[in-house]
Backbone:
């Protein structure tokens, strides 16, 4: 077969073009093969938490409470008649598994949303695939901010909603000299960057900053440094199983919470239960929710959750409550989206946009009224500080007078502000998907 | 911000001893199993985990005091080790690579089994409240429990040494280690010796577990971290008891001193690098057990 030179050149150019611009031959509309709602069929969501490994201490409860919330929603008629169907994954505290399974949930199972992750490291691991596929992640715990994506909704507090309160409180109560201890990954480092600024504003002094590997159980060297520095209090961002080892060894080494309390962002009821109440007593936690909150919704939530088959761990805590609220944010957002769209058109992206301004009222949300910010899709909430008591429950010692606005770039005003369309930089350009 | 004073340096050195004793307690059982029978026991971490769960169960459900839980954990895990050896490992002595796979399988079974029975939520072992304090002389300070772990480590070394070098059983073990066929021709029942050493190694891991359950958290996956450290000590030490003791001592001190000068994360990194370099030039480890290499 004779191939003319002209034809050969044209074909080569086409082939080169196809390779250079692969999106040309991928279907233009992502919605065509993405997830959407089909009338009468269950709405699939993925639960991507660790049930085993070092992160299971807080994350197992996230899966359990999501199952509880989904059952509750389904018993009350589901979302506009369609039940929610959870696909439960054990991410095994392994970041590779998070990425693999997130991909599987989105591409194979076509879930409308993923509820998942506890550490920022796992969130950052799955965000690329979530953003690429225009899927939706409900991230139900506290984090450091400094992200502006079009595919995440967070129901936990940002740095300006917990450590900003906690640091000045501790400086006032116990003195200005502080030592930072954290697990060695992105969240503790970013949290400490925030905390340093709050500390400077409060007139405190940073004596040292130490990080231990995630999952490590040897705190001897760190405790020795703390002993030499002799701070007034410790600010801790140690998470998971390490956090329990830290508190136990703290007390075994002769330190006491009366003389040198640990102010933590993560040591909640479940961690205290795991370490033994005597090791947690006297220390402080900043969170929007405590099991001891006394309001009718919370009393009912605690009673019915703990007596359900999902309440086997015996406590409720901030991480779990934020996860519970996120299930209702999802429900309300899908209902809102269904009012404005045909079911087929309700994709993950539409649900995310519908989350703007969604309120979870005080008769549903155990921590009281919260709502999703219309710009950055984090949550307006009331930060609280609790002190752990001898029985492992927390006594609320301080509560913010009103709802605090979530501000993901509170310590980076130069970078810009997060809007629904993307990160608006000071020169006015919009950047999407900033992580 | 490095602040080197006399007291803090002494503290770092004492802590090094403590870290070394933790490494040693974790590695002791593995050394005996590997050094004697040549079995690469991937389930060692799970034996540690079983020891912790055994202590937890006895303390919580039977009200056994903590100090009694330690020897009882030895018995419980030794019996489990005995059963595993009789039912599985004994068929694999001539196939060392298969023991690696088989014991790894055992480790998964044990982990899942414990998860089925106890659930995957964390447990903890309570220790007597008088232990949760520290001993302080001036600025030098160490937690009492760490002193206790150190003492247990010394006691275990003494016991193992006595058993191996001062008893008939020890003579048999050493004979079988050096040359199994030759020992058998002198009438030593080598498979029985292997069974007993495997059970002994498992029991020692059980003791480790009951101690680590106090320092750390009791989870089905808790063994995975310790098994890496234990293997490092055994490989660096060369599979002999003395080698493991020296390797644990040096590594523990190195980690504590590096963590004191730099920070914890960098210390671990440095220790790993040094071990890799060491093994590059001395792959047989510090003190090789000698005899027939398998």
Residues:
């Amino acid at each position: 077969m004779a191939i003319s030179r002209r034809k050969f050149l044209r074909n080569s150019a086409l082939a080169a073009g196809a390779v250079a611009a692969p999106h040309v031959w991928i279907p233009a509309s992502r919605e065509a093969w993405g997830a959407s709602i089909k009338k009468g069929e269950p709405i699939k969501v993925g639960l991507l938490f660790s049930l085993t490994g070092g992160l299971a201490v807080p994350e197992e409860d996230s899966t359990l409470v999501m199952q509880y919330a989904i059952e509750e929603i389904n018993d009350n008629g589901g979302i506009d008649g369609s039940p929610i169907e959870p696909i439960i994954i054990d991410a095994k505290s392994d970041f590779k598994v998070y990425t693999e399974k997130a991909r599987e949930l989105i591409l194979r199972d076509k879930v409308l949303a993923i509820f998942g992750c506890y550490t920022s490291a796992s969130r950052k691991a799955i965000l690329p695939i979530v953003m690429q596929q225009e899927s939706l992640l409900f991230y139900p715990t506290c984090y450091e901010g400094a992200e502006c994506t079009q595919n995440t909704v967070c129901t936990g507090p940002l740095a300006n909603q917990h450590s900003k309160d906690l640091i000045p409180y501790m400086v006032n109560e116990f003195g200005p000299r502080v030592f930072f201890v954290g697990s060695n990954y992105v969240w503790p480092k970013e949290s400490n960057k925030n905390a340093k600024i709050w500390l400077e504003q409060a007139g405190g002094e940073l004596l040292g900053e130490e990080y231990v590997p995630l999952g490590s159980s040897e705190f001897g060297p760190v405790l020795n440094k703390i002993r030499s520095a002799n701070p007034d209090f410790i600010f801790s961002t140690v998470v998971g199983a390490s956090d329990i080892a830290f508190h136990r060894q703290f007390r075994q080494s002769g330190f006491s919470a009366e003389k040198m309390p640990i102010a933590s962002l993560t040591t909640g009821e479940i961690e205290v239960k795991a370490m033994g109440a005597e090791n947690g007593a006297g220390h402080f936690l900043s969170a929007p929710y405590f099991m001891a909150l006394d309001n009718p919704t919370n009393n009912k939530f605690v009673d019915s959750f703990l007596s359900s088959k999902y309440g086997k761990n015996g406590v409720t805590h901030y991480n779990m409550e934020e996860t519970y609220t996120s299930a209702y944010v999802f429900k309300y957002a899908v209902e809102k989206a269904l009012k404005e769209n045909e079911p087929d058109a309700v994709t993950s992206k539409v649900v995310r946009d519908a989350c703007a301004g969604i309120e979870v009222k005080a008769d549903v949300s155990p921590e009281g009224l919260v709502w999703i910010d219309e710009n950055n899709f984090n949550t307006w909430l009331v930060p609280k500080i609790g002190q752990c008591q001898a029985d492992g429950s927390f006594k609320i010692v301080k509560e913010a007078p009103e709802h605090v606005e979530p501000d993901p770039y509170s310590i980076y005003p130069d970078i810009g502000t997060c809007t629904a369309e993307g990160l608006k930089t000071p020169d006015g350009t919009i950047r999407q998907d900033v992580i | 911000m490095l602040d080197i004073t006399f007291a803090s340096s002494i503290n770092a050195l004492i802590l090094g001893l403590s870290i070394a004793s933790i490494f040693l307690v974790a590695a002791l059982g593995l050394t005996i199993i590997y050094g004697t029978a040549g079995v690469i026991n991937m389930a060692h971490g799970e034996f540690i985990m079983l020891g912790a769960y055994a202590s937890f169960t006895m303390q919580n459900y039977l009200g056994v005091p903590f100090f009694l839980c330690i020897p009882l954990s030895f018995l419980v895990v030794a019996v489990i080790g005995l059963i595993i050896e009789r039912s599985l490992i004994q068929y694999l002595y001539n196939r060392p690579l298969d023991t690696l796979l088989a014991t790894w399988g055992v480790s998964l079974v044990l982990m899942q089994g414990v998860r089925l029975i106890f659930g995957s939520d964390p447990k903890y072992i309570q220790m007597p409240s008088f232990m949760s304090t520290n001993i302080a002389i001036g600025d030098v300070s160490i937690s009492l429990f760490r002193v206790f772990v150190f003492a247990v480590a010394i006691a275990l070394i003494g016991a193992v040494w006595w058993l191996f070098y001062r008893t008939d059983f020890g003579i048999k073990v050493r004979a079988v280690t050096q040359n199994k066929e030759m020992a058998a021709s002198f009438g030593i029942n080598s498979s029985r010796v292997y069974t007993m050493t495997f059970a002994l190694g498992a029991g020692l891991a059980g003791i480790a577990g009951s101690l680590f359950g106090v320092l750390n958290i009791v989870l089905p996956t808790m063994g995975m971290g310790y098994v890496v450290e234990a293997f490092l000590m055994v490989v660096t030490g060369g599979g002999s008891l003395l080698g493991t003791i020296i390797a644990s001592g040096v590594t523990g001190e190195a980690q504590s001193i590096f963590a004191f000068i730099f920070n914890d994360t960098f210390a671990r990194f440095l220790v790993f690098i040094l071990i890799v370099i060491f093994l590059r030039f001395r792959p047989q480890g510090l003190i090789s057990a000698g005899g027939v290499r398998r």
Remarks:
- Residues 318-340 of chain A form the longest helix (23 residues).
- Chain A touches chain B through 42 residues (CB under 8 Å).
- The first strand of chain A starts at residue 43 and ends at 49.
- Residues 75 and 263 of chain A are 40 Å apart (CA to CA).
